[in-house]
Amino acid sequence: MTKVSPPPFLATPENRPALAAIQDLLFALHAGTDESFPNPLYVHGPGGCGKTTLLSLLEAEMRNAGIATLRLSANDFAELESVEDLADVSVLIVEDLQHLPTRYVELLVRIMDERHRLGLTMVFTANRGPGRLEHRGVRIAQRLANRLAGGLVIGVAPMQKPTRLRVLRALAQHARLSGVAPEIMDWLADALTGGGRELVGAVRQLKVLQGLQRQPLKFADVQAHFRAQMEANAPAVERIAEHVGGYFDVAPKQMRSPRRSRSVVLPRQVSMYLARQLTRLTLKKIGEYFGGRDHKTVQHACRKVEAAMKADAKLSGAIRHLFAELA
Q1: pTM: predicted TM-score of the whole model, two decimal places
Q2: CATH superfamily assigned to domain 16-155
Q3: Where are the chain's structural domains?
Q4: pLDDT, tens digit (0-9, with 9 covering 90-100), for 88-144
Q5: Is 95 in a helix, a strand, or coil?
């Protein structure tokens, strides 16, 4: 299979706040003023939004500057036995805290407290903010959440279509993939919402398809190829309801009930909206899942959510986040 190496890093509207925070941290470390920088730096966002790429930039700069850096995944804590294991590390980077086993929470708390005492830098990433961070459906201990929230918390938003199109074009150029019609790239940018890894995979597949056909790619052939994958990977409405219910702390059975309180109506409408966006189910089928409601109710829910997203930036961000996690 043809390998596609990553293109040069792209600053985008979605990653710009996190990139600025990392650049400020680098400046503070080089200037020796890092003790005044908020500690820890906590970067969160859905899978595929570019957190790992940002940390790779940070780690490379640290190593080039001769600053002792250790980068771990949350699962690597099994190899640590005490706070002393990190005594010589100036910058500690821990990725994917949502995978931190519960039994290592106390160890991480002790590590954080000791590094705060010594004025040593910490950087963490996760798929959610500290207050909503979970491991296998269980919220992390509040004492850890408080420490994570005590520094600088920055979110990386899911890539929007203009960014996805820009990334696809950069990946294609880097892979020396030419002759792909603009309408194909535009359709892929619209259809592939899973993040950077999915876009890398798409360019790799385009390269293979082009090599097999030995002629310019046809729009219909590309659509057929990727639609089969998208349909196979499309989330079921049950999974969507469970995911949205987890975010809003509402059980899926409540969303299927006749209840009409706002605490139930909003997550029900968001679930309907996401089911419409992420599945090929008809309005009628979606309504049947949510307590036998008719297609007009689902249509109304989708319109309500679309209007609310335009008026409420916080809700819009939450729904985009849920979309990216489910896509």
Answers
A1: 0.70
A2: P-loop containing nucleotide triphosphate hydrolases (3.40.50.300)
A3: 16-155, 161-233, 237-326
A4: 889 999 999 988 988 889 999 999 999 999 899 999 999 889 988 888 778 899 999
A5: strand
